[in-house]
Amino acid sequence: MNRTRTIAVLTLVAVLTAAAAYAAGKQHATTLDNLRDAFSVEAVAKARYEAYAAKAAEEGYSGIAALFRAVAMSEGVHGANHAEALKTLGGVAAAEVKPPLVKSTMDNLKVAVRTERNESGKIYPAYVKQAIAESNPQVVMSLKGAMASEGGHARLFSKALKKMEDWKNSVVILVCRTCGYTTDDLELKFCPFCTHPRKEFAEVK
Ligand SMILES: [Fe+2]
Ligand SMILES: [Fe+2]
User: Fold this and answer.
1) Which is nearest to 144 in space by CA: 78, 74, 68?
2) How far is the CA of 9 from the centre of ligand 2 (A)?
3) Tens digits of residue pLDDT in 27-80
4) What does each C-alpha distance from 132 to 47, 80, 139, 181 come to in angstroms?
5) DSSP 46
6) What does R_g of the chain's alpha carbons equal in angstroms?
7) In the 8-state DSSP scheme, what is residue 120?
8) What is the pLDDT of residues 174-185, one digit of tens each?
9) What is the four-CA torsion angle of 65, 68, 73, 79, rounded to 10 degrees?
10) Rounded distance from Cα 79 to ligand 2 centre (Å)
11) N or C: which end of the chain has fewer CB within 10 A?
12) Cα 193 to ligand 1 centroid, rounded to whole Å
């Protein structure tokens, strides 16, 4: 191979390598951004529900207070999972959490239902789709786990909103410490999302 041809081949290889790296970088950039956003959303939600729990306890809704505490714990699990997934992409988890706006427990429940439906029905499905397109299994699991949980949160908040008086009584809510799955089904044997056994669930009262 003469010198000119060798230089041409090497240049072509360098260009192709750079193009591949650029493509890979671009691919990750989107899910990286989504994960950073998801981590922030979870951190804000956790702080919001902890504040809502205090308000519910103050208003005498001890069951709703337990539900908010359980969901706050679940959002913490999602945040931790997203932070781990972020690490695999070379990202860093960071969130700015401002003091949440707290209204009456009824209004807080309405905000919670709306927020959880938006997360489970719009935000997470789009993020999951993107992560699947980028063939990133750990990220897909983290996002899917959160998506499944948020749907459950919306159902539980909606249930409480419909019969608030009943939720003045104590309740027990189970939270999967692995994926954040949240339920009031005390007969549950295994997590329907990550299959971990009931004994590994937190019982929030
Ligand atoms: Fe949630
Ligand atoms: Fe789970």
Assistant:
1) 78
2) 52
3) 445 899 999 999 999 999 999 999 999 999 999 999 999 999 999 999 999 999
4) 29, 20, 9, 21
5) H
6) 22
7) I
8) 999 999 999 999
9) -150
10) 14
11) N
12) 15
The whole-angstrom separation of Cα 68 and Cα 47 is 10
The residue among 195, 196, 117 whose CA lies nearest residue 156 is 117
What number of residues does the chain have?
205
Identity at 152, one-letter amino acid code: G
Cβ pair 82, 35 in contact under 8 A: yes
Residue 180: nearest ligand to its CA?
2
- The contacts of residue 161 (CB under 8 Å, 6+ apart) are 106, 109, 110, 113
Judged against a pLDDT cut of 80, whether residue 104 lies above it is answered with: yes
What region, left, alpha or beta, does residue 113 occupy, with left being phi > 0 and alpha being psi -120 to 50 degrees? alpha
Ligand 2 centroid, distance to 138 Cα (angstroms): 15
Amino acid letter for position 108: N
Alpha carbon 157 to its chain centroid, in Å, reads 17
Residue range 27-204, CATH number: 1.20.1260.10
* Domain boundaries of the chain, sorted by first residue: 27-204
Measured in angstroms, how far is the CA atom of residue 170 from the centroid of ligand 1? 21
Q: Identify residue 133 by its one-letter amino acid code.
A: A
The span from the CA of 45 to the CA of 34, in Å, is: 16
Distance of CA 149 from the midpoint of ligand 2 (Å): 9
Answer for the pair 174, 203: CB distance below 8 angstroms, yes or no.
Answer: yes
Read off the pTM. 0.85
What strands lie across the sheet with 173-176, from one edge to the other? Answer: 182-183, 173-176, 201-204
